[in-house]
Amino acid sequence: MGDRVTASTRISVAPPGPPVPRAGGAIVAKGVARRVQSIVPADGDRIAIAYHEGFASSPGGIVVVGRRDFAVSASANGLFGPLHAGGGAWIASGPLWKGRLASARIVDPDTLAVLDTLPLCAPFARTGAGRIIAHTPVRATGQVDGRFCELGHFDVDPGEVGAGRVVLPDRSGLVELDLDDRRLRLLVESAPFDPFTLCVLSPDRATAYAASSFGRIVAVDLAREVIRWERRSPRNVAVLSLHAMAIDVAGARIAVAGSGRPTDLLVLDSSSGETLHEMAVCRLLGRALVVRKPSARVEALAYHPSGWLAVATSGGAIAELRADGSLTAFRAAGAGIDAIAFLDDGRALLVGGREPQLRLWPVDI
After folding, report:
1. What is the CA radius of gyration of the chain?
2. pLDDT of residue 47 exceeding 90
3. How many domains is the chain built from?
């Protein structure tokens, strides 16, 4: 399994209460990946781990490990997350262009060999056989009449466009691509300087929920190509900046989180976009002294099969939000957490981020 770590203490944050012991975890997959971006349970007992340091000179990489022993079965450089590891082929980000996401790769799930090249970028989702959701590259920027603005062309390597055999739309935004005939349709246009960076699908894959960094959230009916509901970005980006998104197993609730004032976590009704829960998680964790280093923002979200929400923060804490709005938390890593995933039907939680290893925590709630 791995090296045991000291059993953590669970703190009741909201409402406040005395600390209680919780089950201990283990350090696994030492040195397998640097700065883990995403953890995706794949087919069989495999787990796909994508990593990248966040700067142009880093090649990034994908590592596939076994669920039981965390031994590496495949690895590749130059590919990184967000990663969609499902179906007959996986979707990953390709090399950066001028420091920006502007390319995608379809890879073989067994060997991680590149099968196809696309001039698109994350977020990725699969809507059906041979159909994927992605985002156009961002627009190039520059000065026009003394004003800084987006220009009329995409900031993308022309070689990527030619190799991908894709005609990009006139506008930037969330798109669906048919990989067989290379037909691409624009689902929803992104606002200037604010591309969609997060996307999840309803369980029936009929609705795409997308969010931008500046807090815009939309629900798109894929068959009708219309927006079912929308929450516009706040005028002040400090109010809410989004870095994580998740949907529960039933498809009834959408969670989005990041940083902001006065809230950094929203749980929304998926049918209407109405707020079910609103919380300042990082501020609450700071007051409860869950970890020594304050959490600046929420980095990752994951719904447990039973319906509660795991919230990972930049301070190394995992908060557990129940359906009734109560919040507990524990120290889950020695540094910031960037990726989490439930394993074994929710019996364990795998945690990765800025540490050079992964931690595995049993789920005891």
Report:
1. 20
2. yes
3. 2
